[in-house]
Structures are given as C-alpha cells and as structure tokens.
Write a structure and sequence with these properties.
With about 200 residues, the chain is of the alpha/beta class. It has one domain: Rossmann fold. About 50% of the residues lie in helices and about 10% in strands. The protein has a five-stranded parallel sheet. α7 links the parallel β4 and β5. α3 runs parallel beside α8. It is globular, with a radius of gyration of 18 Å.
Amino acid sequence: MTATIKESVRGTLRQESESVGNIFEKLDMGAVEQLVEMLCSLEGRVVTAGCGTSGAAAKKIAHTLNCVDCPAVFISPADAVHGGMGTVCAGDVAILLSKGGETPEITQLVPGLKKRGAKIVAVTENENSELARESDLLLKIHVASEPDRFNMLATSSTLTVIAVMDAIAICVMDRNGFTRETFAVIHPGGAVGRRLLDR
C-alpha cells in the first residue's frame, strides 16, 4: 500500500470517527428524549424514508428498529406517491431523512403522511429547511464536513445519522424491557441466532 493511499484511508477514518465522537455535544437531547418516548409508546409502526444515501440509511434504521422489536418499514419515496402511502396508518411515526431538508421527493410526502395521521420526524442538518418546518419533531444532525475533497459525498454525515439512530434504538430496547428470549424469536438466524439460542 502506498503512503498516499494509507494516509487517505487514515484521514477518512479519523474524520469519520471524529464526526461520530463529537455529535453528542451538538445534539438537542430534548429532541432525542422526545423521539425515544415516541418510539417507546408507539401505537402503530415506524415508517422511514430517504433518497440516495439517506435512503440507504433509512433502510438500515428501519431494520435496526425491527431488531429491537420496534416495528418499522422503509418506504420508497417514489413508490409512496404511487400508492405506497397506503401502508401508513394513524399512530405511525414517519422518520424522514434529508441532509439539506429540501429534497423534493421527501418534502412531497409530508402532506399525505399528515393526512394519514402519522407524526413527522425530520432528520436533517438544516433547521430552516422545509422539512424541518413541516415536521412535528426536528432531530438536527450536523457534521463539520465530509472527508472527500469536494466536501460533498455523504459519508461522515450518513455514518453519524446512523450512529445517533443506533443509540436511540438501544435506548428503546432498554426502556421497553427487551429480553434475550425476544431477541432469539426475532433473530434466530446466522451467528447472532446461534449465540442467542445456545444456552
């Protein structure tokens, strides 16, 4: 491995780890606590949505919530406006991800989600965005910069969003009395399942 590659990898990993490590001091803990309470008292299920890299993060968040017995589903923003909105019910919590908060495919979901009776949680770095203004709860997650030379590739920011939502999922897991037995029922497959089922 050349020194240039080594230093590039080191620099990226350092910046990403710093972004995650520094986010706690920037978080609005009131918003975090409110989101945890919403998820712990969920009457329906969680619906996540995002486009591009935010969409990949939204899928991961939905999967993690399912793993801790908090029912969640990812909906494609494109499909949602072509009938997919029918999956949304009163009592649902919609977690919408958009770094800039102005993604048209995401903001266009808000009116329909509200009419269906869902609460809107905006996860964005832009507190003045349309998504933030139209949400019931804003979870602002902002990192200083991305590690690429254009400061454009959603890497550190996406990793930090996922890390914060992981922390929230674990709070829900702990507060809802999630047990090893429940975990084994939900996740019987793979190495995790073998560990859970191996008494």
